[in-house]
């Protein structure tokens, strides 16, 4: 079994978030309607239930983590984490510039960066000759431009979905 | 009912609707054929496209995706020994050995026809069973709806995650997310943090696309390994054509598949892999040559593939009649229905008379398109398996963005989508599951508003929730299910 600190950490995040939600809900105004519950009742009940259920999960996952022998991560783990972070960072960046840059430029840049990013993190680019690198980059750029333009045309013209110009 | 079917037929037999169903089926086939991509993801990606469509056209498109993905999981299962969807695991038992004998086309032909028969049979069962269940549910009041919501949450939480506790936590997270926004009774803003976009609550679409599409892309990005590229089948693919007569010749296996799928389908959370394994086991048990199973035996493929598609119609019964989905794909479909302005449940059969029968017929047409498209395009779909993963992942994210932004042009929803995507990734990674979150998000408002309306009506008295027979039945079943799941988990962990 792989030693994964992420499991108890995720449970801990749930515990903290549910406690914070409970406290925040208690600050909601109480409006008296005969027979009705306060607006805070449901959120407080749910956050309390999450806290109660997440506590044994946290203890179990922490125990499991402590009892699992420390070992090296499987081959390619760093690459996998880099790829995951790359996608999250690029998606966040895409969200930030989506309206400002307009749909076609932002989508083309995002797609190009995604494809090239995967090639770089997987070591695919360094294995290529200079000519091969230029060819791979040109192919990625072409793919990005064609995808962005064709999708823009299909959605704005055929489906009438407005996209930032 | 007959006039309802005639109205529904009129809605379905329009060029636009037929094209939408065909398009949905095609996308579903492509998604189902790609290992790792799911029918839930296909439906989530199609949701934005269906916005401007009339209900039957939009839902027909989503049903096409469900139907196509259900059938095409057999393509990689047969050709590569890699199930495209979890329900295609059992297809590898006989499909791959048959392909190794150089009869991949025959295996594909059998699987396509068996899927078609399974789908058609399940549509008949759906149309027969859903209306009486919905009619019964018309007796439900606030107490019953509250108990039904709790029952639905418990049932999906107990099967979606690998642990009951984690499944419940995931469901409660969805419940909590549903409380964000303006309180339905007092009008007080809850957890809105002065964000205008949150006043009306969490938008279902970014949540759906985030949990089912973005989280899957993140998972694929983590697992992306360029050295593990899929290779085209080394075995000769003979002519893939529909094998109607051969499939019917194995009627015992076909019936085993249809019955297993139809029985397992309506059980919320039971899922395709259970139905297909049950069908395979039953077909082998009633076979005259059980020892041939696992060696490339046609009845093995027929039973599994008919069960896979028979399951889909069964899973639609609780989704349409009670508003409780059977598993992830139908949970997303339920979201799609609500986005279309259709509230699943008993009133659906009362208010949208022609619409619901149109939905039944659209599902039938989707099965016909699945048969047609799979037969015509089988060689192309084999090539789909070779699409480079990095281009595919980037394209899926682009479609997610358009889908979410296209709803109302609100950039906040894009952040919400990313947030749900990251949350969904960790929920899946740590065995919580994402289906309970969506169900919680859908059932949360039903549970809260009915509990509070009920309490107002009963002058603050809680006892009717536990004394009205239907409400009590739902609560007892939910409690029993909790106890059974806890006992099963305890037994599984106890050392032998």
Task: Kindly describe this structure.
- Chain A: It comes from Larsenimonas suaedae.
- The complex is a heterodimer of chains A (165) and B (496).
- Chain A has 165 residues and is an all-alpha fold.
- Chain A has helices at 6-26, 41-67, 77-101, 103-121, 130-158.
- Chain A is flat, with a radius of gyration of 24 Å.
- With 496 residues, chain B is mostly helical.
- Chain B has one domain (2-493).
- Chain B has helices at residues 2-12, 15-33, 39-46, 55-72, 74-80, 91-100, 104-137, 142-160, 164-179, 204-223, 244-249, 251-264, 272-285, 298-322, 328-339, 346-351, 353-384, 389-408, 411-429, 435-457, 464-467, 469-493, and strands spanning 181-182, 189-190.
- A two-stranded antiparallel ribbon of chain B has the order 1-2.
- The longest helix of chain B is centred in the N-terminal third of the chain and has 34 residues, at 104-137.
The count of helical stretches of chain A stands at 5
| Termini separation of chain A | 50 Å
Number of distinct beta strands of chain A:
0
Outline the low-pLDDT stretches of chain B. Answer: none
Mean pLDDT of chain A: 87
Main β-sheet description of chain A: none
Radius of gyration of chain B: 22 Å
Number of strands of chain B: 2
Major sheet attributes of chain B: 2 strands, antiparallel
N- to C-terminal separation of chain B? 56 Å
Overall pLDDT metric of chain B:
84
List the helices and strands of chain B in order: HHHHHHHHHEEHHHHHHHHHHHHH
Q: Count up the domains of chain B.
A: 1
The fraction of residues assigned to DSSP E strands of chain A is under 5%
Fraction of residues in helix of chain A: over 70%
Poorly predicted spans of chain A = none
Structural classification of chain B: mainly alpha
Order of helices and strands of chain A: HHHHH
């Amino acid at each position: 079994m792989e030693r994964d600190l992420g499991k108890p950490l995720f449970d801990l995040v749930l515990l903290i978030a549910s406690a914070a939600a409970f406290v925040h809900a208690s600050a909601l105004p109480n409006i008296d309607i005969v027979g009705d519950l306060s607006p805070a009742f449901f959120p407080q009940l749910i956050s309390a239930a999450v806290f109660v259920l997440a506590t044994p999960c946290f203890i179990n996952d922490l125990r499991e983590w402590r009892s699992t022998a420390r070992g090296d991560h499987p081959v390619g783990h760093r690459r996998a984490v880099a790829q995951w972070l790359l996608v999250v960072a690029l998606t966040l960046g895409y969200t930030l510039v989506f309206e400002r840059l307009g749909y076609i430029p932002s989508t083309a840049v995002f797609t190009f960066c995604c494809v090239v990013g995967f090639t770089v993190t997987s070591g695919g680019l360094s294995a290529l000759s200079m000519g091969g690198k230029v060819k791979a980059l040109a192919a990625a750029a072409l793919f990005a431009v064609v995808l962005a333009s064709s999708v823009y045309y299909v959605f704005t013209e055929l489906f009438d979905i407005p996209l930032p110009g | 009912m007959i006039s309802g079917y005639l109205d529904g037929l009129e809605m379905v037999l329009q060029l636009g609707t037929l094209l939408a169903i065909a398009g949905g089926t095609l996308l579903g086939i492509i998604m189902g054929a790609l290992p790792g991509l799911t029918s839930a993801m296909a439906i989530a990606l199609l949701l934005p496209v269906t916005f401007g469509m009339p209900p039957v056209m939009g839902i027909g498109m989503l049903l096409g995706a469900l139907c196509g993905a259900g059938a095409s999981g057999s393509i990689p299962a047969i050709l590569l020994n890699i199930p495209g969807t979890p329900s295609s695991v059992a297809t590898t038992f006989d499909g791959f050995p048959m392909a190794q004998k150089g009869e991949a086309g025959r295996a594909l032909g059998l699987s396509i026809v068996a899927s078609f028969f399974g789908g058609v049979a399940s549509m008949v069962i759906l149309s027969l069973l859903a209306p009486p269940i919905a009619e019964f549910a018309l007796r439900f009041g606030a107490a019953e709806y509250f108990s039904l919501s709790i029952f639905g949450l418990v049932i999906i939480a107990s099967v979606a995650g690998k642990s009951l506790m984690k499944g419940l936590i995931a469901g409660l997270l969805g419940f909590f997310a549903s409380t964000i926004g303006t309180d339905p009774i007092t009008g007080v803003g809850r957890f809105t943090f002065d964000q205008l976009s949150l006043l009306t609550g969490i938008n279902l679409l970014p949540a759906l696309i985030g949990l089912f599409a973005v989280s899957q892309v993140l998972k694929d990005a983590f697992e992306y390994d360029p050295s593990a590229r899929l290779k085209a089948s080394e075995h000769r693919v003979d002519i893939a054509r529909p094998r109607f007569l051969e499939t019917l010749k194995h009627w015992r296996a076909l019936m085993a598949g249809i019955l297993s799928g139809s029985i397992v389908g309506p059980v919320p959370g039971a899922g395709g892999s259970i139905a297909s394994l049950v069908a395979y086991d039953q077909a082998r048990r009633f076979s005259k040559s059980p020892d041939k199973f696992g060696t490339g035996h046609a009845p093995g493929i027929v039973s599994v593939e008919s069960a896979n598609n028979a399951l889909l119609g069964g899973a639609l019964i609780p989704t349409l009649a009670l508003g409780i989905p059977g598993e992830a794909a139908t949970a997303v479909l339920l979201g799609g229905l609500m986005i279309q302005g259709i509230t699943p449940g008993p009133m659906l059969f009362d208010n949208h008379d022609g619409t619901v029968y149109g939905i039944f017929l659209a599902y039938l047409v989707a099965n016909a398109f699945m048969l047609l498209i799979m037969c015509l395009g089988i060689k192309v779909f084999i090539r789909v398996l070779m699409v480079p993963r990095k281009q595919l992942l980037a394209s899926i994210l682009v479609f997610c963005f358009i889908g979410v932004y296209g709803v109302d042009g609100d950039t906040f929803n894009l952040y919400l989508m990313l947030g749900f995507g990251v949350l969904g990734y960790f929920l899946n990674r740590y065995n919580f599951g994402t289906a309970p979150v969506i169900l919680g998000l859908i059932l949360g408002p039903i549970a809260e508003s009915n509990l509070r309306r009920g309490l107002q009506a009963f002058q603050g008295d809680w006892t009717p929730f536990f004394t009205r027979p239907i409400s009590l039945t739902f609560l007892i079943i939910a409690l029993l299910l909790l106890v059974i799941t806890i006992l099963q988990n305890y037994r599984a962990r106890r050392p032998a």
